[in-house]
Amino acid sequence: MSSARISGGVSLPDRGSSSKSGGGVISRMASSFSQSPVVYQGKRVASDAAFVTKKLLKSTGKAAWIAGTTFLVLIVPLIIEMDRDQQLSELELQHASLLGSSPSASGPQK
């Protein structure tokens, strides 16, 4: 028995060594272009830019969450209370005008 049959069969010739392949010149140019230092550097810069953008978006999202929840907890109740105070002042002015007294005399003195 030969060693080729024991190891599993006959090996095929290497495609790169054949000079009769149809796209030889184009494939060699494409491979040399893809292995160029300029392309490598461009891919590296694009990868770094994507990484920085991803980190920036993640931290911006965190900051937006903090700002939004702070607004809901602190600012919205203040706005509601100021609106209630405004409505109460308007109601007091309306009652004072219905009773015929001066609006400055009907309200509490501060």
Automatic annotation (TrEMBL):
Residues 1-26 are annotated as: Disordered. Signal peptide: none annotated. Keywords: Membrane, Receptor, Transmembrane, Transmembrane helix. It comes from the Eukaryota. The chain crosses the membrane at residues 63-80. This is Mitochondrial import receptor subunit TOM9-2. The gene is LOC113714555.
